[in-house]
Amino acid sequence: MQPPPYPATTKAGGFKFELDCERIAQSDTWALATTRQRPLLLMLWFIAWQTPCGSLPADDMLIAARLGMEADAFQGDKAILLRGWWEASDGRLYHPVLTELVLEMMGRKAGNAQRQAAYRQRRQGVTRDGKTDDERETNEAVTRYSDVSDNTTTTTITTNTSLSNERDCTNTHASSEGKSKAALGVADLVTEGIERKHAEDWLTVRKAKRASLTQTAWDDVKLEAKKANITPAEAMRICAANFVAGLQGDVVRQAGSRGRRCTRYAAYQRHVWRLRET
User: Fold this and answer.
1) Contact 54/77 with Cβ under 8 angstroms?
2) Higher pLDDT, 172 or 120
3) What pLDDT shows up at residue 126?
4) How far is 169 from 257, CA to CA, in rounded Å?
5) What burial letters (b/e) apply to 211-235, b meaning 16+ CB within 10 Å?
6) CA-to-CA dists, residue 41 to 35, 70, 75, 173, angstroms
7) Which pick of 35, 52, 206, 234 has the fewest CB atoms within 10 Å?
8) Exposed (0-12), middle (13-18) or buried (19+): which is 106, by Cβ within 10 Å?
9) How large is the angle between the packed helices 250-277 and 232-242, nearest 10 degrees?
10) Residues 86-119: tens digit of each pLDDT
């Protein structure tokens, strides 16, 4: 007997058996089968998709039981139902078409496993020489900047440590600098007493001008608003209305002029009310 075409532990493992209707319709077995036998053929192929995948036990009684047939009835249809099946040395039956499908499935599984292994390797940053990207970067820096030869173990270790500490300090500084330059959002401005609509409009203007609103920039706006004798909310409304990123130049002078006129008018009204009370 011939050996089995693949290991006895081969499992489908999520790969489902798919019918190739065109191939089935053109097969000789399908043409020879009666209308009563054709559903049994399909059921037999589905039953064979087990462990080992694509095989049947070389036992007529077991096959008949799995098909839900009487043993005598199975013997009458055996010639058609088992047409093309052959027995291997492991005591199981195999079919050429199912064997082809199983081998194709095994190839796809192997390809998937290789892609997953390569993906995990990329995630870990391991290169072909077994070193991580950080290690390669450090070694290249040592080779480039060290004044001594690579054979000096002490110098290499010291340089590696210095570069690692320098990288840690740089990352910490960059992290703190990034936090200090974090852009403010609508919610931050609303907490400052700004109307949400004005805040959204002004941030849209700054975004269009590619000027993120940092805390420092917002402090400058409030300072300019104070100089112009207006509130930060009024300053933001003016900036949004004039499509400018901040209170500068003519916008400041115009805002200051309006603010002074409003202040003088308010003082005049207070004077009028005092005269009326007297």
Assistant:
1) no
2) 120
3) 57
4) 49
5) eebeeebbeebeebbeebbbebbbb
6) 10, 16, 14, 72
7) 35
8) middle
9) 130
10) 999 999 999 999 888 888 888 888 888 888 888 8
Position of tokens 């995990």?
120
Whole-model pTM: value is 0.41
Q: How far apart are the first and last CA of the chain?
A: 126
Residue labelled with tokens 């805040």: 199
